[in-house]
């Protein structure tokens, strides 16, 4: 039985839902394009308008998005510099033509008939990321999106078509990349950090010259960049899936100094959680690079990561040590277990107060650390 809300409308499932279905991946979100309709038609059928920049509506029951077919014309810089034209005379093929990659420019009728005017299915089967049209160069965000799709699918054997790489280099050299707002750059980067092969995102941006414009602190030294990208999957064991993004970012920038890391964070307007973990990873880097550990050094590290007030930070950072220097990880775990047994209560009963209490706590912890590390 058909859906009475869309009955009589010329509607097509589009974009990621079609792509992922043909890949055999789960389809979580479905977007639709409506051809030949007006906003008034949609509202009469009970659709709720939600589009700010172009006509998008929510189905009254499924709450899936239905957008009126539209075209775009370049009218300024950046990904926002477009004039949108949505009207009943825009065809499905014209709507699909404005999309970035052929694998994202396929459509299906509700009955499952494929509409593929730009060869998306062939590229999907050939594991190729290819631009739909030369209009690719009008939107610098497509450089980041293409790199992100590579990060998603590289483990399946996908590559970027040579002609698409050429357009990415053209966009990077044109200066258009510099017109992207920080929020969009970070949004794409954060998504890429969740993808199966996140290093591919940064490598693709570096290869086309975009990384030098967006993250020159990383692009300046190719050897350091390669080393940093190799660290992205050397993460603590047993991380929740939603934590991997923060840890990958921390590993990417842990070799940079505090001032440089903070400058990047400010420029990209990163959330505080990313900044804090990057700093903790940088501090932990000192531990795993040390030839030997002593009580003073481990205590400075525990103080620096605020371990006494935030003890939950220690285990995952020790997990990071485990990936880089297992003997150091074992030693720090022993030291932490011993030092955290020191409590203020006996010292309070002995009459310590204020600064004297803090100094006594530190001394006692250092003694326990030295004993556990075998350096007493």
From TrEMBL:
This protein's UniProt keywords: ATP-binding, Magnesium, Metal-binding, Nucleotide-binding, Nucleotidyltransferase, RNA repair, RNA-binding, Transferase, tRNA processing
GO biological process: RNA repair; tRNA 3'-terminal CCA addition
Domain Poly A polymerase head residues, every copy: 12-130
tRNA nucleotidyltransferase/poly(A) polymerase RNA and SrmB- binding domain: residues covered: 157-219
Pfam families (UniProt xref): PolyA_pol, PolyA_pol_RNAbd
Cofactor: Mg(2+)
A GO term, aspect molecular function: RNA binding
Listed CDD domains: NT_ClassII-CCAase (cd05398)
PANTHER family found in the cross-reference section: MULTIFUNCTIONAL CCA PROTEIN
Family: Belongs to the tRNA nucleotidyltransferase/poly(A) polymerase family.
Name the record gives this protein: tRNA nucleotidyltransferase (CCA-adding enzyme)
């Amino acid at each position: 039985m058909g859906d009475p809300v869309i009955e009589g409308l010329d509607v097509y499932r589009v974009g990621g839902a079609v792509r992922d279905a043909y890949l055999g991946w789960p389809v979580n979100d479905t977007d639709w394009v409506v051809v030949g309709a007006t906003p008034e038609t949609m509202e009469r059928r009970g659709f709720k308008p939600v589009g700010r920049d172009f006509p998008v509506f929510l189905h009254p029951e499924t709450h899936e998005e239905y957008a009126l077919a539209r075209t775009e014309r370049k009218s300024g810089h950046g990904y926002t510099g477009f004039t949108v034209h949505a009207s009943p005379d825009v065809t499905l093929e014209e709507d699909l033509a404005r999309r970035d990659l052929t694998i994202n420019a396929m459509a299906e009728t509700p009955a499952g008939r494929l509409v593929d005017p730009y060869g998306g299915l062939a590229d999907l089967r050939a594991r190729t990321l290819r631009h739909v049209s030369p209009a690719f160069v009008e939107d610098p965000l497509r450089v980041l999106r293409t790199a992100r799709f590579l990060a998603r699918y590289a483990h399946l054997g996908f590559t970027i078509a040579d002609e698409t790489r050429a357009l990415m280099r053209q966009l990077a050299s044109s200066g258009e990349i510099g017109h992207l707002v920080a929020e969009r750059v970070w949004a794409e980067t954060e998504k890429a950090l969740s993808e199966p092969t996140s290093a591919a995102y940064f490598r693709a941006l570096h290869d086309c010259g975009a990384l030098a414009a967006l993250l020159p602190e990383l692009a300046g030294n190719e050897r350091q960049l390669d080393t940093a990208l190799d660290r992205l999957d050397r993460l603590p064991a047993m991380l929740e899936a939603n934590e991997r993004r923060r840890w990958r970012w921390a590993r990417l920038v842990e070799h940079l100094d505090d001032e440089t890391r903070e400058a990047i964070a400010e420029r990209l307007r990163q959330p505080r959680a990313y900044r804090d973990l990057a700093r903790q990873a940088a501090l932990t880097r000192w531990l795993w690079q040390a030839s030997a550990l002593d009580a003073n050094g481990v205590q400075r590290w525990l103080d620096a990561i605020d371990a006494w007030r935030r003890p939950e930070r220690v285990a995952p950072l020790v997990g990071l040590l485990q990936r880089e220097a297992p003997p150091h990880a074992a030693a720090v775990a022993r030291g932490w277990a011993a030092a955290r047994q020191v409590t203020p209560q006996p010292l309070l009963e002995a009459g310590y107060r204020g600064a004297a209490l803090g100094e006594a706590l530190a001394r006692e912890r250092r003694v326990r650390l030295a004993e556990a590390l075998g350096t007493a």
